[in-house]
Write a structure and sequence with these properties.
- This protein is an alpha+beta fold.
- The chain has one domain: Nuclear Transport Factor 2, Chain: A (Roll).
- It is 28% helix and 42% strand.
- Strand 4 and strand 5 form a beta hairpin.
Length: 139
């Protein structure tokens, strides 16, 4: 296991369950890209600790009984990079709807911290659970 794959596993284990610990894993200059988030009205990228922590705090507050499972972490040839596939499930507090998601997460590390995340998820599932329109779709 590489440092990056270990950090990615810790990211998944602590993001929701121990957010204070998760915050110790991220670099001050972290960049988190959320490729499909704009279709939900969320930013495509979060830059720096403040934006990333604010988004993570929003997510933790928006869900209850959220859990990640079926985690598969893949170390890359470069020990500073790793990728994971993971499923997530929880209840959206504001809608009472179950949120089930498949995530693919790319991570880059430097100096023992997470410096970059790129996350892919199905925005249609998120929109249904959040009861929010998908931006850009014709009505």
């Amino acid at each position: 296991m590489t440092l990056a794959s270990d950090l990615l596993q810790q990211h998944i284990q602590t993001l929701v369950d121990d957010n204070a610990r998760w915050q110790t894993l991220i670099a001050d200059d972290i960049l988190w890209e959320l490729a499909y988030a704009p279709s939900l009205g969320h930013p495509a990228q979060l830059s720096g600790r403040e934006q990333v922590v604010r988004h993570a705090t929003w997510f933790v507050g928006a869900v209850e009984k959220f859990r990640f499972f079926d985690l598969k972490v893949y170390a890359l040839a470069d020990p500073q990079g790793a990728v994971a596939e993971v499923k997530g499930e929880g209840l959206i507090k504001s809608t009472g709807r179950v949120y089930r998601q498949d995530h693919v997460v790319f991570l880059r590390a430097a100096d023992g911290k997470i410096t970059f995340l790129r996350e892919y998820f199905d925005p249609v599932r998120a929109a249904k659970a959040l009861d929010t329109p998908i931006l850009g779709l014709e009505s």
